[in-house]
Fold:
Amino acid sequence: MKITRFIPKVLFGRKHFNDLNRFIGDICPSKKRYAVYIIDSIHQTTGLFERLQPGKNDMVIEFNASSKEPKTSDIDSIRDQIVKQKAAQLPHVVVGIGGGSTMDVAKAVSIMLTNKGSAENYQGWDLVKNKAVTKIAVPTLAGTGAEASRTTVLTGPVKKLGINSDFSIFDGVLMDPDLLETVPAEQEFYTGMDNFIHCVEAMNGSAINAMGKSFAIQAKAAVENFFLKEKNYEELIVSSFFGGSSIANSSVGICHALSYGIAFLLNYRHGIANCIVFNQLEEYYGSDVVTFRKMMDNHGIKLPVNVTADVTAEQFDTMIELAYKLEKDLISALGPDFKNILTPEKIISIYKKM
Ligand code: NAD
Ligand code: ZN
Structure:
């Protein structure tokens, strides 16, 4: 039996960032301890910092998503900072304002405030024991679907893997399409393609059900419309939410499995790493790869080349090991016999084309 949890409260529409405090009040009516806002440092330059209205006991913590994607050690140190500063009293809410990185930090911090040890102990499936602190997402970049998904992707000392848990699901999402308009064009493309690739992988995998499929069809069409025809930010922000909702009823596939190695060992960001891999997967995702290339041309995107030229045999082994960790996703994409189809030799041959 698989019970799907959806985001219980959504506030959608232009200018609604101004209503953030009222939205928090609606979700946490009787809790008046303090709020923790985790906000991408980029918003020092976009004007969002000035529009935040924290109370005098609230904490505002910056996460610099421009320099890195979140690590388990970042989560542990933010958690420790909150516990120390507030003498172990828990906040009534954690609010994440930013792209997938910052939203994932907010999710993981809310979990680690009520669960012992290091965040790295919870990378995997359903390892979280205690209910997390209430959390709210304000996406400022569209595509990862982190605002709607049940995972929190983190890089730990030995692996890049999500905290997959119902406790990774936000209690509320505030979607204001205006917030997307400051995103640089290349970033908009790479994160937008993360959504496109989630949908393609979901729709081509056996793990999908009719609910996941409906979300994926809608999200994929909106991304194609945005990058091939008309830049509609309202549709783009909704499509990210739908893409994330689809993944709860499907799975990712070959592209994500191979992209984790590129991200972990070669330090490429998630969106671009997926694009580098997806571009080489025509054999598996056929016409969708052709559409992807059209969108790329339309936006003048040039992917890096010779990405794996200096990768050693030992590093390829690690990348293969990381890919095989996404066992459920590869079973969905290729069946239980996936290791005989996507053999280590085949994986290396795909990597060598990049
Ligand atoms: P990001 O959050 O890493 O941000 C990328 C860049 O965009 C940063 O420089 C950031 O400062 C900037 N940015 C964000 N909003 C902006 C705005 N409004 N204006 C100007 N600049 C802005 O990018 P992302 O692609 O959204 O997230 C990637 C992360 O999400 C990875 O760590 C990936 O593993 C994770 N992820 C999570 C899920 C999930 O379901 N939890 C799914 C897919 C990916
Ligand atoms: Zn992704």
